[in-house]
Amino acid sequence: MAKTIGNPISWSLQRLERLGEHAADTAAAIGSEDMTMPKVRTITTDDLIAALRAGASDFAAARADAVFAVLIYPLAGLVLVAAGFHMNLLPLIFPMIAGFAILGPVAAVGLYEISRRREAGEELDWLTAFSVIASPRFGGVLVLGIYLAVLFLLWILAAAWIYELTLGPGAPESVSAFAREVLTTPAGWEMIVIGIGVGFLFALTALAISVVSFPLLLDRPVGVPVAVATSIRVFRQNPRVVLTWGAIVAAGLILGALPALVGLIVVLPILGHATRHLYRRAVA
Q1: pLDDT digits (tens, 9 = 90+) for 191-208
Q2: Amino acid 13: pLDDT
């Protein structure tokens, strides 16, 4: 059959139709008519070790693609630090860096897709990580990412409030003066203790709702409520193991952040790939 070139109007209508179908599928993916909860497994520290090994294997197999996918994360961290100094928000630099880990699962979304395709034996390239944007399930991922962003902003507000109650309300005169007040005064010690306690609650909340929810959203036709509820169930059924995983992630991010956040280019891909493998072990 001879091929003909369609006129611009018909071509545009076809594109709009496809775009509308994609938007409808994306909106449907935010919620789900099927509220059947996936079965949750009991996991052990051996599963954590296996997930980390598998994550390292994925990183070794798709190193360039993974680094490209997460490069924005350390760059955004550096921007936050620079903004803190420029805008005289010195007391919030550490809370911003520490709380930035709340957004880690969002930054690792592309890594979950790389691991999924590698597991399926599909071909990988540097665009693989960004193919999730075209997925009809991306709407749910986006909504859950917004929730975590709101949680991050609430943590920053809480950190600012804690500073106001202890060392505030005035801004520090210099970096050295601020460090001296934090480390050598009762008010500074009080700020550290309260900040660690409140920060732990925020971190616990983020861990509970995101430990497996993002990989689950990309892997199965479930909505955000089911994904979050499943993640919380994994946490409740395996509290010690999930807390250990949270500690591993926190330690890895701290080590990766020490050399001007550059280490995150290696640490974040391994943790991201490992999270996907942990999900596969925790959810039947």
Answers
A1: 999 999 999 999 999 999
A2: 43
Which DSSP letter does residue 93 get? H
Please state whether 280 falls in left (phi above 0), alpha (psi between -120 and 50) or beta: alpha
Tokens 């009991």, located at residue? 42
Going by C-alpha positions, the residue among 238, 266, 256, 246 that lies closest to residue 55 is 266
Structure confidence by residue, pLDDT tens digits, 123-176? 766 666 566 676 767 788 888 999 999 999 999 899 989 988 888 777 777 778
d(CA 141, CA 145): 6
Sequence-ordered list of residues with C-beta below 8 angstroms from that of 109, at least 6 positions apart, any chain = 129, 132, 141, 145, 214, 218
What whole-number distance in Å separates Cα of residue 116 and Cα of residue 113? Answer: 5
3-class DSSP state of 38: coil
| Tokens 């925020």, residue located | 202
Q: Are 193 and 183 in contact (CB under 8 A)?
A: no
- Show the tokens assigned to 12: 């545009």
Is residue 77 scored above 70 in pLDDT? no
